[in-house]
Amino acid sequence: MLRLLWLIPLLPFMGFALNGLLGARVLPRRAVGLIACGTVLLSFLVSLGAVLSLGSLPETAEGLLIDHDARRVTQTLYTWMPLGEGADGRSIGVDWAYVLDPLSAVMLMVVTGVGFLIHVYSVGYMGHEPRPAYARFFSYLNLFMGMMLTLVLGASLPVVFVGWEGVGLCSYLLIGFYYDRMFDEKTGMSCADAGRKAFIVNRIGDMGFLLGMLLLFSLTGTMDIQGVLDQAGTLGPMVCTVAGLLLFVGACGKSAQIPLYVWLPDAMAGPTPVSALIHAATMVTAGVYVLCRMAPMYVLAPGALLVVAVVGAATALLAASMGLAQTDIKKVLAYSTVSQLGYMVLAVGVGAFSAAIFHLLTHAFFKALLFLGAGSVIHALSGEQDITKMGGLRSRLPWTHLTFLVATLAIAGIPPLAGFFSKDEILWKAFVRHPAFWVVGVAGAFMTAFYMTRLYILTFRGMERFGEEARHHLHESPPSMTVPLVALAVLSAVGGWVGIPAVISLGLPNVFEHWLAPVLPAAAAHETSGYAATAAHAAGPLEIGLMALSVGVALAGILLGWLLYEKRPELPERVAAGARGLYLLVYNKYFVDEIYGKVVLAPYYGLCRASAWLDRWVVDGAVNGAGYLTLGSSYTSRGFDEWIVDGLVNLTGNMVRGFSAALRVVQSGLVRSYATVMVLGIFILVSVYLLTMG
Amino acid sequence: MPVPPTHVLIISLLLFSVGMIGVLIRRNVIIILMSIELIMNAANLNLIAFSRQLNNLVGQVFGVFTIAVAAGEVAVGLAVVLALYRNRATVYVDEVQIMKG
Amino acid sequence: MLAAVAVSSAVMVVLSRNAIHAAIYLVLSFLSMAGLYVILEAEFVAAVQVLVYAGGIMVLFLFVIMLVNLRDPSGSRVGLHGVLSGGVGLAVVALILSVYGRGSLPASSAEGSVLRQGGNLEAVGQAIFADYLLPFEIVSVLLLVAMIAAIVLARPIPKD
């Protein structure tokens, strides 16, 4: 099975090709769905087989490079960019190679597994779409899967970058899927605009990624990930910091951290399954994944890690606050995603790499579930997305309601659901690093619990606030949609148990952390000194204590939410009225988009206009000037031609005329003069004769 | 008494010169033709004179021929004059300058 | 004596204003020349001269003169042009005269023996038909052609 590594990204690409080329007209609807889901399922099975093989690696295998210590299998397919040899004689080319190690194994399972469930869900959700759009959707979705898998399996940075760009492209395509519709009537943004925004903001991040990649290449002579990491020690902390920060910029773009998060809320313009797959479970986690991949390098750059941690914490808190006042069900979830990504980035920043991946895993489960559930609600209400117009759906949509509840509790961090374990791991590791991080994290957790409860209550409980028309079509979703919901709910519930920390499991090591150990450095260098060391010593009771505290905070958040929205629903109005300014600030997302528009975009547009002006006047001026110059020179030469050349010609003519005028005198037409001349001629001839005959 | 040939030649010369001057001077084309006849006659006279001098009949024979040719030439010439008169209503050479230039 | 007549009448031909007068003088000149021919023992030629020249050609001339209906010539009789032409002619005359001084005439051979055989006419006739038959025939063709030419040229312009 390991030898079939190359098949994993290839299968979805085939699905993309088939559905893309034939799906619109040739294939029946069922076939399209079957192909799309089938390829992903096959990818999942192959991945499963490969991952299981990782557990018991063979000694050697043909075509594979096996490293037993690192539990890593590399399969090189072909030489992609033969760039010759570097100064030390080693090849500096880039090969197209895939690598399977515990880290990429985790990602594979998440991507293919959750991806498959979402594909199945989409069959039901997009069922009303006309066939060309239906096929287009699934071909894009498959393309995305292929790109994401390329990213995950890439053995060298350029291959990863291909996948990186590819998912960015698919994100654009899928966000702007309803290319003919408006997204936000108020700001006049169409779905296509949203897609473009996502792509452009991503691009900014990609610049950072590219620069970091090239910096590493120039100093190490290779772009193979393992090759770079092996040489990381020789680079020096300064280089590692710079490269790390550059790559982090890319991660900010992809994983929606400050300041490049603005695209994600607007990405909700796309169909809900897209939001679930791309913007919750997979693409946005690519940034975190790359950070963890380069962990051995980051460990050598504590400065970079500090920046990462601060940004992550700030994002977590800020996004959570923005989620408090949103009224669109998907937007709340979007800000929640940004916030949770902030937690993952924070984890990376404090050196808890496996914790970050753990949270990535659990977040994929419950966030996907939340989005799919939201999709189910929207589908049931015929497109309504405003939570102020929902309510009382508990009895109407039983499956949706139940699974959504499970997800809400999971994200809030209630044990023994998945979210608790992963989030707590992060909080603990953050505390060890510095208590300030922990405080921020806990505050964010409180807000998370609060706004999720709010969302849940406003959507499912209370009075029904939706219109007559929606009421008519109200129905629970078909099994194609509810079954994935249930599957994800189960995963959200028990998925966290692979990462139960040692302190609770009474001696058993953290399975998840152990699994990732060959790849991720479990402990950062700073943990052996100072405050952190004392904290680590007092690990046991402190950890449990903090755990209890975070659970309490979560419960408090839920309580508050319940209080404000269920018990005394008139309160939120009063609070909002009382703190009008603050409320507006939060509701309008701190006007970040507007600030960007003025500070960044306006000068840029000005620059564009200036360039256009320059082009029109200078460049076109030069071109026109050249044209005029040519015209002028042509006039000159014409004058020259007319005067001199024609002058010569005329001169010749006039000369001839003069001569002929002179000679014409002889031709008088008078016979007598002719006769006279003849006689004269005779006279001359004869006299000459006589004279010479002498 | 035999006429000394020199005399005859001088006579013919005089006739010839008169005829030539006539051709050159006169404007009336008919007079010009007459002058031409004079010239021919002068030549004829020369022929006859030398025929006698050299005791050869050729001169006389040739003289007869000359007269015949002269007759034909006059005929044609006068026909031309007539045609000229019809076209130009004039017989004065000076007034016919079509070939001028 | 005859010579004087011939020459003077020739001069008059050239000099007379009236064309008819000129024609008459020309006839006179021809006749006197015929006399000269007789003196030169060329009776046949003289006869032919009178017949053809004086009889035929002059008649033609007179016809045409009548037809042409002359009027007085306009413009000066003898202009600059005439003087020049005259000068040229005289120059030629002088030239020829100068030749006389140089050359010598061939010696006279036996006089008249050839010319008188069987009378002049007979002698000439024999010469023509014996030795110079071809030129004779050619001359007759020439006369034919001249006749045709004269007719064509003098045809009235067809009115259409």
Low-confidence runs of at least 5 consecutive residues of chain C: 109-118
Strand residue content of chain A: under 5%
The largest sheet of chain C, given as strand count, sense and whether it forms a barrel, is:
none
Radius of gyration of chain A: 38 Å
CATH architecture of the largest domain in chain C: Up-down Bundle
What is the number of helices of chain C? 6
Instruction: Give the count of helical stretches of chain A.
Output: 27
Tell me, rounded to a whole number, the average pLDDT of chain C. Answer: 73
Helix/sheet category of chain C: mainly alpha
Number of domains of chain A: 3
CATH class of the largest domain in chain C: Mainly Alpha
Which class do the helix and strand fractions of chain A yield?
Answer: mainly alpha
- The number of E-state strands of chain C comes to 0
Summarize the structure.
Chain A is mostly helical. Chain A has helices at 7-22, 29-55, 102-125, 131-153, 157-175, 191-220, 225-235, 237-254, 263-266, 272-281, 286-293, 295-298, 302-323, 329-349, 353-380, 398-412, 418-433, 435-460, 468-473, 479-494, 511-516, 530-537, 539-567, 571-578, 580-587, 592-664, 671-693, and strands spanning 64-67, 72-81, 94-100, 182-184, 189-190. Chain A is elongated, with a radius of gyration of 38 Å.
Note down, in words, how this protein is organized.
The complex is a heterotrimer of chains A (694), B (101) and C (160). Chain A is mainly α and 694 residues long. Chain A has helices spanning 7-22, 29-55, 102-125, 131-153, 157-175, 191-220, 225-235, 237-254, 263-266, 272-281, 286-293, 295-298, 302-323, 329-349, 353-380, 398-412, 418-433, 435-460, 468-473, 479-494, 511-516, 530-537, 539-567, 571-578, 580-587, 592-664, 671-693; strands spanning 64-67, 72-81, 94-100, 182-184, 189-190. The longest helix of chain A has 73 residues, at 592-664. The N and C termini of chain A lie far apart (135 Å). Chain B is mainly α. Chain B has a single domain (5-95), classed as Helix Hairpins. Chain B is built from three helices and no strands. Chain B has helices at residues 5-25, 29-54, 58-88. The longest helix of chain B has 31 residues, at 58-88. Chain C has helices at residues 2-15, 19-39, 43-68, 80-102, 119-130, 133-153. Chain C is extended, with a radius of gyration of 21 Å. Mean pLDDT of chain C is 73; it is low at 109-118. Chains B and C meet through helix 1, helix 2 and helix 3 of B and helix 1, helix 2, helix 3, helix 4 and helix 5 of C.
